[in-house]
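pls design
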């Protein structure tokens, strides 16, 4: 019995896809210190930062290593950089200088 090359190729491709899907789904969702894929999503990190800093806007987000841990760096419109642990979603640290203006101080610039 002769089997065409296309049938063999198709069977091999389907086998690879099924095996790859099984391997991908069997991995833990937890991000280790060596992982490149965060367990906490960017949206979750932003929500955590904005809850801790109400009234602010996010101007940038990136994934970085902080103290050998994978972390989201969320930049705010007040020159703060807030780092969120990509494994547990907790704020690790906040850097930068917060900019605040007093309306009384601004009146000298407006005149």
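designed seq:
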């Amino acid at each position: 019995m002769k089997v065409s090359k296309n049938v063999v190729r198709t069977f091999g491709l389907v086998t690879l896809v099924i095996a790859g899907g099984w391997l991908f789904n069997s991995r833990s969702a937890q991000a280790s210190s060596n992982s490149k894929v965060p367990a906490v999503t960017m949206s979750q990190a932003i929500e955590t930062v904005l809850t801790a800093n109400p009234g602010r806007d996010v101007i940038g987000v990136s994934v970085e290593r902080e103290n050998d841990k994978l972390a989201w760096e969320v930049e705010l419109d007040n020159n703060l950089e807030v780092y969120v642990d990509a494994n547990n979603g907790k704020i690790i640290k906040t850097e930068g200088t917060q900019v605040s203006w007093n309306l009384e101080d601004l009146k000298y610039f407006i005149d």
